[in-house]
Task: inverse folding
């Protein structure tokens, strides 16, 4: 196969998709490497779903090309579909069939397929083989929908918000399963709403906004790219001078407020040790007693804010 | 692959209790109800006759009454009017004819006591008995009969209401299941994302579609078998002529039109509730107008012309033609032609209306 000659499982170039007057994709290019977990983050309507549908061979792009596993998706979508796995929402399975029957049915669509009971074993659902979807808990349904994407032993798997609406325990459970899929040799493309999920799971993350990729790197690389990645919060009984605070080295986005605990200063800075030293010195100079001083590293949430100019959750 | 796909589709249908209810149980309930109301079992009138059977007059009268098919005559001599009335009130008989004793040469008085409540039954019975009495009078008077009339049915075989209604219920059951159940399954597959999930596999969506249609056709064959068998057991007498054997084929072919209509509804209407409503809006008027329960000829004339366009009308025409009318299949060509037209047109419209790519 052509796919073996390169380490890229997805090569997308200039993808554009119009739905009537709406532009869902406005020129997306990206590459996904073999064996990584690639996250796609973005608010609703950013074009995540359309991008994934184009790569899965479900939607034809208006412009641009996409090679998946070395095959042009628009030229031979069936060849692509037989080698990828797709997880949609849990409810997208037949309500009158048992778990085992659904896996056998989907397996029958592929030339090569895994044993239904072994698949269920992988996500600890073997003892529920004879049950129907509706009798499963939310976490079980998600686990099932993940394993249903693995019936054809795919080289590349797409997960669509696999942990949406799950409690923290079930989410950690699912993260383990996603990692085990990657560790077994498959490449994973994952869309998500959750920053901490992208940070914990993904080797690389693409931020989408308004049909374009706004940033693409490893989570650590994205955070490093922020100009003032540290969040500093200082609380004092009497106020610091505003001029003094603004004069701190590299201080950015300064906010001053009065709260129940005292006077609060919030700012962002590029260098944590430098700014804490300068802030303590300023307080001593002005005779202000600091009650609390906290420094937090930036997160993907901050990257998201920079890319989209708005908050993702809420 | 096709085998698993097809058996899965069939499993999904047979595990859907609601679908099976509409397919089999609902038409069976209708058959039972119409069997009860058609009154085939109480088609005889029990007549108590009190007359001196040893007299010539009595003998001739009892003989003549015995020849009337629907009369079940019990001879109880020696009753007077009051005691006969008591017998009818106690439901020992539906009516009583009391002929008071008289000498052979003098006229005897006869009183008919009617226990039948429904006006038609009452009229039919009294007219029949009156005409028997008239005939007996004439024959006893040895007078020449000026006009001798006998009645022959126009149709070779008489058809009861139940026999008329049985093919109608079969057609109704097939139509309801095909249109409503298929429309609702397809819209469910779309709404729950099953179609989308299938499109993400290398399976051609038309294979999936054909398996759903095929499963519905299998249930249709089961419906035809069960409903025909039960109708036959209840006395529908569907196979009076060899051409009656064409009925199952007409039924299955006609169902293809209704399956197509189900596809059209699923393709054009969004939302499961709306789909089921729209499917009912198509089948419900047809069920009543196309002659499932009442002959189309009972409708106002303008309405009859409209009804002649509907597919169920022609399916029922052809079904009744080869079953209760005992006609040949060839004689059904106008109805079969209309059904063929509906099959072609509804298939084309279904192809346009329902696009698997929309999922």
Result:
């Amino acid at each position: 196969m052509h796919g073996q000659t390169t380490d890229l499982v997805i090569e997308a170039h200039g993808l554009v998709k119009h739905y009537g007057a709406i532009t869902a994709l406005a020129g997306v290019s990206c590459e996904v490497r073999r064996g990584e977990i690639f996250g796609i983050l973005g608010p609703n309507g950013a074009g995540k779903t359309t991008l994934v549908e184009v790569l899965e061979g479900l939607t034809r792009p208006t412009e641009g090309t996409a090679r998946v596993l070395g095959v042009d998706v628009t030229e031979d979508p069936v060849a692509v579909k037989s080698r990828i796995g797709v997880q949609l929402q849990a409810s997208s399975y037949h309500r009158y069939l048992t778990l085992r029957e659904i896996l056998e049915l989907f397996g029958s669509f592929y030339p090569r397929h895994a044993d239904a009971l072994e698949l269920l074993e992988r996500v600890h659902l073997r003892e529920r083989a004879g049950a129907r979807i509706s009798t499963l808990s939310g976490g079980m349904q998600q686990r099932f929908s993940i394993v249903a994407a693995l019936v054809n032993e795919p080289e590349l798997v797409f997960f669509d918000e696999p942990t949406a609406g799950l409690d923290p325990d079930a989410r950690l459970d699912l993260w383990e399963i996603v990692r085990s899929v990657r560790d077994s040799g498959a490449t994973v493309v994952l869309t998500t709403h959750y920053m901490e999920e992208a940070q914990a799971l993904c080797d690389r993350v693409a931020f989408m906004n308004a049909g374009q990729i706004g940033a693409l790197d490893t989570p650590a690389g994205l955070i490093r790219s922020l100009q003032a990645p540290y969040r500093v919060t200082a609380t004092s009984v009497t106020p610091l001078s505003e001029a003094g605070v603004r004069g701190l080295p590299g201080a950015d986005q300064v906010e001053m407020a009065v709260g129940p605990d005292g006077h609060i200063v919030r700012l962002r800075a590029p260098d944590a040790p430098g700014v804490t030293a300068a802030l303590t010195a300023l307080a001593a100079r002005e005779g202000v007693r600091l009650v609390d001083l906290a420094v937090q590293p930036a997160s993907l949430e901050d990257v998201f804010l920079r890319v989209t100019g708005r908050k993702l959750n809420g | 692959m096709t085998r698993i796909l097809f058996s899965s589709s069939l499993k999904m249908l047979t595990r859907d209790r609601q679908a099976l209810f509409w397919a089999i149980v609902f038409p069976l309930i209708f058959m039972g109800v119409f069997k009860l109301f058609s009154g085939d079992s109480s088609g005889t009138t029990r007549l108590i006759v009190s007359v001196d059977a040893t007299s010539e007059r009595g003998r001739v009268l009892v003989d003549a009454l015995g020849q009337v098919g629907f009369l079940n005559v019990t001879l109880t001599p020696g009753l007077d009017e009051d005691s006969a009335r008591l017998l009818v009130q106690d439901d020992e008989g539906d009516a009583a004819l009391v002929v008071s004793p008289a000498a052979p040469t003098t006229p005897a008085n006869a009183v008919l006591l009617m226990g039948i409540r429904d006006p038609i039954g009452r009229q039919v019975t009294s007219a029949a008995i009156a005409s028997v009495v008239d005939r007996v009078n004439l024959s006893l008077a040895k007078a020449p009969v000026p006009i001798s009339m006998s009645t022959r049915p126009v149709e070779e075989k008489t058809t009861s209401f139940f026999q008329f209604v049985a093919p109608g219920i079969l057609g109704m059951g097939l139509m309801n299941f095909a249109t409503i159940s298929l429309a609702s399954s397809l819209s469910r597959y779309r709404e729950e994302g099953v179609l989308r999930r299938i499109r993400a596999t290398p399976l051609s969506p038309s294979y999936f579609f054909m398996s759903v249609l095929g499963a519905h056709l299998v249930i249709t064959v089961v419906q035809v078998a069960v409903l025909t068998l039960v109708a036959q057991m209840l006395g529908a007498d569907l196979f009076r002529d060899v051409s009656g054997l064409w009925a199952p084929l007409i039924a299955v072919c006609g169902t293809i039109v209704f399956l197509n209509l189900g596809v059209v509804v699923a393709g054009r209407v969004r939302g499961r509730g709306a789909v089921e409503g729209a499917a009912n809006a198509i089948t419900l008027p047809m069920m009543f107008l196309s002659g499932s329960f009442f002959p189309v000829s009972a409708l106002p004339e303008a309405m009859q012309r409209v009804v002649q366009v509907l597919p169920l009308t022609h399916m029922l025409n052809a079904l009744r033609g080869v079953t209760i009318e005992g006609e040949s299949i060839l004689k059904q060509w106008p109805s079969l032609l209309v059904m063929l037209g509906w099959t072609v047109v509804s298939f084309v419209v279904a192809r346009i209306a329902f696009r698997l790519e929309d999922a």
